Fold this sequence. Notes:
With about 200 residues, the protein is mostly helical. It has one domain: Arp2/3 complex 21 kDa subunit ARPC3 (Orthogonal Bundle), CATH 1.10.1760.
Amino acid sequence: xxxxxxxxxxxxxxxxxxxxxxxxxxxxxxxxxxxxxxxxxxxxxxxxxxxxxxxxxxxxxxxxxxxxxxxxxxxxxxxxxxxxxxxxxxxxxxxxxxxxxxxxxxxxxxxxxxxxxxxxxxxxxxxxxxxxxxxxxxxxxxxxxxxxxxxxxxxxxxxxxxxxxxxxxxxxxxxxxxxxxxxxxxxxxxxxxxxxxxxxxxxx
Length: 204
């Protein structure tokens, strides 16, 4: 097992700091989703790190940004950060792994599309079986409350599975699309700065 160079670790740290800052910029979409589901682009630096230095680097960015967020602004007793890490790591890990094997625009797009779909799948299952029950226990919510706030926005939501399929899954797909679009726009110019060290980076 080889290690990342110190320079690469420093650049991963910078990307993590950028991600942590971007996590504070949230856009509510209350016409479509409950108000606590908000879009941000904090996974973009993680995707850039993953594309430049490999999946482990990208996932490390996701981990650090959520640790920083939990320490500075966490109000869900780490459940929100845990959820963000799971879905973010799903997107970044899959997208950057595919891109690592095909370092072309086509490879990037295939990776981003596949990563978005995988994130939606993982997000749906983990929210149903782990995250929302845990959030309910920690925050003292009744599980039916999620259905109620979801149905207030989308009357088609009638039960917990409906909440997952009609709120959580579409939200994660939209989040992945936004992060992917921004990544495609900004990766090339940023990669010029990162490329010198990319060849030294080693996938663990």
